[in-house]
Amino acid sequence: MTQQTLIRGDRLSAALSLAAAGVPVLPLRAGKVPFGNCPACIGNACGGRPNMKTPGPCTCLAPCHGWAAATTDPDVLTSRVWQRAWHGAAGVAYHPGGAGLTVVDLDNADAIDWADANLPATRAVRTTRGEHWLYKGVMPSANAVRPGVDIKSSMSYARWLGLGTGALAVLPDVVRDLVVREPVPARPVAVTLPVPAGGGRCPHRSPVFLERGIAMAEQRITEATAGVHATVFAAFLAVLSTHGRCGCLTEAHTARLFAAAGAKGESPRHCVDAWTNALTRLGL
């Protein structure tokens, strides 16, 4: 048995051990990145798993779609298509959220010093440049929540680098608060369309319809877990396609939409760009 074969076997053995413990795993290529989508799933053509609501292999059963491919199924992990992936794998990754965990990825010594001073002690795993601090609990993932600090939990993956040391602590609020952004002050943009007769009231629907449309757009933006830019644009487009020509939108309405987008981390400039692009798309 060659050294290369032994290394590959060790990776698969580690993956199977983790899977048996309820930790969803997937192979990593060189560069610490997942394997790309198979030909049937390029461009998310398969239409199911790419929605990325839940982890696990899609119907092609290949290690596709990054973190969403992570699985605990030993039959999948040892299947022919996964064996090909393990043959070229450079490491093992896991889906922390799927294992009920959150990883605070501390990328350098300064980040570790910050964690020592601000976070409760928990299990720590050494990385190439820093440490992974593991907590029991799941939360949204986010990058660069502060200098040198990323959060890896739901809809994300982390490298498996060993068991680490220390006892697992419960996910504290101070970590959850790292991904709660302060709302960006809204910079409302008025609809520069003539107001029709009737004082700006929607001529084809009741004011209740307009209020419901604004509330639905706010909710759509607020509930976005990925692709926030695209979600904001789609919400603005939906509101303007219905009410952009009748003159019933006011600065108060656009302020509400901008505030919802700002709470998801969109800057005022991005809000203005999305609003302007939606107007342009509709020929307004």
Characterize this entry briefly:
With 284 residues, the protein is α+β, with helices and mostly antiparallel strands.
Classification by helices and strands: alpha+beta
The H-and-E topology, N to C, reads as HEEHHEEHEEEEEEHHHHH
Low-confidence stretches: 1-7, 183-200
Cα separation of the termini:
69 Å
Radius of gyration, in Å, reads: 23 Å
Indicate the proportion of strand residues. 5-15%
What is the percent of helical residues? 25-40%
Shape designation: globular
Main beta sheet: 6 strands, mixed
Query: How many β-strands, per DSSP?
Result: 10
**Count of DSSP-assigned helices:** 9
Overall average pLDDT: 81
Structure description:
With 284 residues, this protein is α+β, with helices and mostly antiparallel strands. It is 36% helix and 14% strand. Strands 4, 5, 6, 7, 8 and 10 form a six-stranded mixed beta sheet that branches. It has a four-stranded antiparallel beta sheet with strand order 2-1-3-9. Helix 6 (207-222) packs antiparallel against helix 7 (228-243), helix 6 packs parallel to helix 8 and helix 7 packs across helix 9 (268-281). The N and C termini lie far apart (69 Å). Mean pLDDT is 81; it is low at 1-7 and 183-200.
